[in-house]
Amino acid sequence: MKLLDILLLPKNFYKKLNDKRSTLYLGIVFVGIADLVFNFLDNYSAVFGGKAGNAIYRNIMLSVVFIVILGAVDILFFSKPLFDLFKKFKKETRETETGTKLIKLMKIYISAHFVLVPLEILIYIAAKNINSLNYNVVLIAAFVEFILPVLFSAAISRGINVIYNFQPLFKRLVFIVVFIWTYALGFALSFVIDNWIMKLFV
What we know:
Blueprint: H1 3-8, H2 11-15, H3 21-42, H4 44-47, H5 53-89, H6 95-128, H7 135-164, H8 168-197
């Protein structure tokens, strides 16, 4: 297996993505968990610790609700604008084909989290244990954190270029568009989570 297939997922994986909604719903939950899990870990005592039973139950229910809502919003806000843009890059011949492409685009975004989340976990563990780790390990973790947005965008771009089969000019533009959009979306979601959502659990 090639290195790019390990880092960015194989092209055949993206080719096999379908428009079934059952796996899309599972992906929404997965992305929602990925969006919130580190905030919950950092604020565990405030969210779940030292509270009465009814308060814990309330926060658990809130967690489930926001996992689903954030997962859906994250995926939709990434996919729909780019889907509309890519329709201008490549004219589709059938309405059903465009609908299929939107779901596949959503699944590409979900799948790229398989690249993102394991590395985020390693970075999180390294950050929490920075004082006890070897200096070289800390440097590696810092480097991974630095290139993580690039890897994430590259994985998404690879999947997009597989399902759309753009001409070379547009293929080069895809990564730039994806990188800028994922950065902006990530910044917006982080702001909403930190300043609004997490305050509801206090």
